[in-house]
Each structure stands twice: as C-alpha cells, then as structure tokens.
C-alpha cells in the first residue's frame, strides 16, 4: 500500500501546517507540495528552522516542493490529499474557491485541520464527490518569525470522515486510516474518531468562551481567571455551548465546563489565537468559533442572547481590523 | 443677595470643571478655589489657556485660588458650594471621603457635574444634612494638553436638587436657583429642572450604548454606524435603558432611541469618553454608566442579559487598565 508516495497538497504553512508537513514527509510515504504565502521567500532561501518536541531540531527543512499559489503547485499534481491548515475565515476568503483547481473529483480527499464548528459544509457543497476528513489539532506550535517554528506541545490530530451518502463509507474510512497511518508513522499522532464533530464541540467549549473573551478584553487566559471573569462570563458561555452541542445531538461529558477551565491553569497565561490576532491587527476566526454555533443554535431554536452579543461585538472589532488592513494596503 | 461673593470649592479641573469655574468667576459674584492635580504646576505657572465658544480666548486665566488638595484648599473656606467635576469612578476612589473635610453640615451645598445614573446616593449617605444639586452637562470641551482647553460646544448645564426629606424643599430650590443664577450670569447656561434624574436617564440612553460599545470595539460613533452596529447592539441596549428608566418611573419621549442615534451624525465620528479612556489607559466610568442601571434593573426585577454581559466585559477591561497603572506605578 505504501509502495508509492502519496501525493499531498498542503495549503497553509503556518506552525500547524508546517508540523503536519514534517510528519507526513517523515513517514517516507508522502510527498508534500506546500503553498506558502508570507514566508515563501524565507523558506525558499533558508528552509524552515524548527524546534520540535516531536521531531527535534530541524534546520533548512522543507517539504518536497513549495509553491507561491495553488496554480503554481498544480504541476506537482494530481493530489491524493489536499490538506487545509489555513485560518478558517469564511467572512474574508473562500477556501473552496482557492483549492478548486487542485481538486480531482472522486480522487482528491480534502483534509481540514482547522478550528471551529460547521467548517466542513462549504467543502461538502463545493466538492460533493470528494471525501472530507475533518481534523481537530491539539498541537502547541507557533511561528516565531517567518519560517521559524517552535513546536512545544506534541502534535495530536483527532481525525474522522464527514460521511457523505454519495461516497461509500468503507472508502471514507479507508482514506481516513491511510492518512492517519502516514501522519503517525511520521512521528506525530493522528487518532481516528467516528465522531469528529463531537470533538469539535468539546474543543469549542474552551474556544468560544476563553478565545472570544480574551480577544474582547485584551487579557490572557490566566488574567481572565485572576480578574474573576470565569464566573461572570466564561462559565455562562460554556454552559450555552454545552447546551447547543446537546441540542444538536452531541452530549459532552458531565462537568465539561470545569474540565475545560482546569485544562488551562492560570499560571500558563495562555494567549489564544483570537487575542494574538487582534493584537497583531489580523482577522479573527469569529465565524467558525462564534458565528456558526450561533447559527446552529438559531436553527435548533435555542436562545443565545449572551453569545450573540459577544458575536456582534467581535464583528465590529473584525470590521475595524479589516478597515485598518484595507487602509494600510491602500497607502502602499 | 449677591452683595458678597459666594465661596465655592471646585474638585476636578479638567475641561468641564474649568469651564464651570470660568462661568462662576465671570459672574463677579463667586470666588472659586479649584483643587488641581495633574495640571497644578502648569496652571500655577502660566494659568489656563482657553479657547471658548462662550467666553472667547482666555490666556493666563485662573480662578481666585488654586490648591493641590482639598486639605490645602481649606484655608480659603468655609465653602457654600462644593462643585464636583471629577470623573465618577466609585470603583477606584470615594469622592465623599475626599471632600468630607470641606463639607460644613447644613451650610455646604454639593453640586455634582458628572456622568451616569445613581451618582447622588453616596453623597446623600455621607452628607445627609447637605443639599445635593445634581447636574447634567451638555458642554463640548476637551483639555488638549495640561492647562490648555478647547471649548467648542456651548456650556449648557441642566441642574436640579435631589430632594431630601431632612431639608426644606424651599431651601433646596433656593440654593439651586442661586447656583443657576451665578452660572448663567457668568456667560454660560444653567437650566433648572425639577426632575434631573429623568434628564440623566435620557443622556444615559446614548452613553450606556454608544459609549460602552465604542470602548469595547475601539470604534468611534460614526464607525459603529458604518459597521452596522446600530441595529445589532446599540438599539437593543437603548431599548433596555429605556425600559429600565420606565420601570423606575422615568418615561422618556417616544422614539428616544432614534432621537439619540440622530443626535450624533456619523460624520461627527465622535469619540466618547470611555473610548478615549481605554485608549489612554485610564479607568472608565463603567459603574455609573452601566453598573448602576444594571443594579437598578435588578432591584426592579428587569432581566438584562445583554447589558450585564457588556458590563462584565467592561469590568475585565477596567481590571486590565488598573493592573497596567499599578504596574507602571511600581516601576517608577
């Protein structure tokens, strides 16, 4: 089965995407063509510099091929797997449009390694004949500067198919097993699950609460705890996410709220992605972390005044970030 | 009645306080002792530099006396009126404690020129034998730098007594009339009202909504309109303030929400006080603008999930501001 290398396109070569590329390449059974944007020139000249808890220190590392765009990557296709490790920003850009030229119907499997809930639907709509594998990453990794990555918490990727009636379930499970096997034999860990959406809801309990409130207040997770925000905001939001999950058929463990609060001790002073984004003036993943759970709640008839208010505030902040970006682009 | 000058202590000599001092002094019937903090040295050396829509250009202007503290001001007492134009920050400092040494029971009238609702109660509690006059200022004035003031919208002060059963209503009305007469004869405008609390609720419709949301999102009032925030957040918050006001016995005009939205056209791009505060790292008046209406709602049994969530977020931001202030003070 592994006699020929699996041909893989990777879109999004930040910290998470790059560590996925490392694992896949190190399996010896995959050739990765990575599409890079802001760090293309640095990586073309010097490769990645990686300090990894799983793989040790790598200097001058690069995947089989790098490209500046999906179009430029096409010459290395066709691709069996198309791995998406871009930020999920449906209010800013359409990833299905971006990857469309590289998707071969029935042949290309799309692997999503992204935050949030409900992220798969645009891909199902755009590529009804492709298997969609959905992944929730538990990695701790950051790009310190362009092409320089610190990977300090082991790469554990939870993965499962989003089953699609037009494709045989057996084939979907096989593709998930193949991808998982590549990933894991490369020195990271890819755990198969039959209910990846459950896993997404579980992770969302932390993300929709702490990530949002940190972004709105400029505080890290430990400061939110110190300032008394857990009881006043975090727990009510967690309760609501828990109840939306349940209403949508995903019953989370009893006491999930406290488990999630305890999962990130205050001493860690964790700075979640949306806080980092707002401070750097980058768009935040508000639609997949807050907007989609809200829309799901609405379809299910759940009242969500608090979550909606947080969402509407975040949308105004996003508007400010986008306006500043547009302004600075116009000035160039 | 105006044969001898009224002796007035003024606490808080920012833009609003200074313009009050100008009006009172220019009446020729009042001697103002102003307590200055950050701008004391500049004003002691060069006086105020004022560009005023009501009073023209004043250079080297100062009130009768200036002092660094209430204690230092005492030698110019006793004071018939004690005018408070400090920011209302009950979570940071107690103004009743600050002015206590200067308050002569039955003799000193306290005049509050401050934002928010429910601000009078701490003064009623601390000084049950003093007349309390409560003022809502409609001035447009800013301190551009220490001691330099631009006053660009006429000074209209709405004023009325907070009637107190232990003092004769006649005396309270007389004192209000006297203060109003001093203020108005000095070239500004002080309009007497029997229901100053109604006026406070009216102003709060704008303040609790726009001021809060601007502070949380970093947008000015015009940008909130451009970004679509009026329908998603501003109007629901205005509706709630309107209904709390009504529940507390203060029926505001029909359509007050739209009147308030229209009162500040988007072209003005107004930057309300809490936005200016958060950007400068100064504490915001969240307790009197959001906290007090919430507490009043709670006493009246009104549900306020949205307003509460805004309040809890603002409290976390306030915590961050205070922590930064403490940190920078410790570093000195």
UniProtKB/TrEMBL annotation, chains A, B:
GO terms for biological process: pantothenate biosynthetic process. One of its GO terms (cellular component) is cytoplasm. It catalyses: (R)-pantoate + NADP(+) = 2-dehydropantoate + NADPH + H(+). Its EC number is 1.1.1.169. Signal peptide: none annotated. Residues 195-317 form the Ketopantoate reductase C-terminal domain. Catalyzes the NADPH-dependent reduction of ketopantoate into pantoic acid. This is 2-dehydropantoate 2-reductase. SUPFAM superfamilies: 6-phosphogluconate dehydrogenase C-terminal domain-like (SSF48179), NAD(P)-binding Rossmann-fold domains (SSF51735). It is an enzyme of class 1 (oxidoreductase). InterPro entries: 6-PGluconate_DH-like_C_sf, 6PGD_dom2, ApbA, KPA_reductase, KPR-Related, KPR_N, NAD(P)-bd_dom_sf. Residues 8-162 form the Ketopantoate reductase N-terminal domain. Keywords: NADP, Oxidoreductase. It comes from Talaromyces proteolyticus. One of its GO terms (molecular function) is 2-dehydropantoate 2-reductase activity. The keyword NADP applies. Belongs to the ketopantoate reductase family.
């Amino acid at each position: 089965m592994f006699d020929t290398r699996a041909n893989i396109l990777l879109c999004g070569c930040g910290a998470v995407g790059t560590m996925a590329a490392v694992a896949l390449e190190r399996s010896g059974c995959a050739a990765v063509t990575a599409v890079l944007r802001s760090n293309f020139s640095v990586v073309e000249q010097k490769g990645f510099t990686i300090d990894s808890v799983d793989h040790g220190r790598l200097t001058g590392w690069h995947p089989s091929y790098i490209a500046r765009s999906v179009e430029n990557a096409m010459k290395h296709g066709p691709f069996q797997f198309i791995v998406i490790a871009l930020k999920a920003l449906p209010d800013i850009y359409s990833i299905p449009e971006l990857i469309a030229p590289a998707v071969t119907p029935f042949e290309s499997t799309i692997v999503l390694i992204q935050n949030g809930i409900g992220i798969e639907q645009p891909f199902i709509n755009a590529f009804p004949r492709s298997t969609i594998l959905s992944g929730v990453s538990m990695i701790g990794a950051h790009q310190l500067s362009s092409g320089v990555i610190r990977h300090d918490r082991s790469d554990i990727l939870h993965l499962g198919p989003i089953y699609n009636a037009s494709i045989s379930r057996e084939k979907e499970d096989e593709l998930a097993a193949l991808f998982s096997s590549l990933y894991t034999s490369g020195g990271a860990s890819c755990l198969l699950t039959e209910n990846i959406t459950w896993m997404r809801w579980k992770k969302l309990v932390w993300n929709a609460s702490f990530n949002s409130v940190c972004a709105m207040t400029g505080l890290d997770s430990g400061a939110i705890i110190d300032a008394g925000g857990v009881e006043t905001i975090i727990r009510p939001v967690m309760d609501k996410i828990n109840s939306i999950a349940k209403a949508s058929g995903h019953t989370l463990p009893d006491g999930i709220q406290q488990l999630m609060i305890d999962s990130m001790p205050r001493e860690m002073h964790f700075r979640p992605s949306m806080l980092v984004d707002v401070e750097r003036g980058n768009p935040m993943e508000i639609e997949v972390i807050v907007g989609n759970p809200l829309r799901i709640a609405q379809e299910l008839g759940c009242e969500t005044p608090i979550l909606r208010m947080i969402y509407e505030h975040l949308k105004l902040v996003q508007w400010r970030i986008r306006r500043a970006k547009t302004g600075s682009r116009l000035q160039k």
